[in-house]
Amino acid sequence: MLRIQKVSPEIIGTNCANFSNNSSLTLLVHDFTSNGYITWIQHLSTLLLLKQDSNLNVVSVDWSAGAEPPYDQAIANARLVALEIVHFLGNVHTKSFKPSDVHIIGHGVGAHIAGYVGKMNRLKRITALDPAGLYFENMPSIVRLHKEDAEYIEVLHTNAYRFSQGNKELLGHADFFANGGKKQPGCNDKLIYLESIRRGDLKTTVVLCHEYFVERCEVCTIKNFSY
Fold first, then answer.
1. Interatomic CA distance for residues 26 and 22, integer angstroms
2. Domain enclosing residue 195, as ranges
3. pTM score, two decimals?
């Protein structure tokens, strides 16, 4: 069973019982209107920790207080979240663990938060799940995820079509467009993101993105492959 321990950035690197300074680190960063305890994050955390060759710390970044509407305020808050993550990485920096060894998995706006962190402290790897398009697409690289933010960046697009909340640009070293990166099977294509939240119908393409990634990790865990 996954054990969740809520701690501050100052505590986790010093006296958090479940954190190992000798293990690598994966950070999970949620999207706008979400939280760090959402089901897919808990599921993915469990899968990563269950890997037979895993020597890993998994930390979920809960920025839900800053991820609430209005959207433009959440976008502004994203930079502050990145600063907090950099502060946290500085606290856990040891001889055997360096911030440059970190892997961040970010969803939606969380993908760009990963990019902001990488701009201040270049990362080993970023996995971007449906990076947000609104206020980020066709913008300078300094305000969005860019392939220089980490040694390797992989991007999964499932919601990259006109008038969607996804991003159609090539942002990483490898960009994958599931089913063309557009509307996915099983989704209510007529609902835009915020309307789907209002109605309680979260089965949208942007939500399916992390489901695809979690399923990929399930297969890799079962077969003992690298995720």
1. 13
2. 22-220
3. 0.80
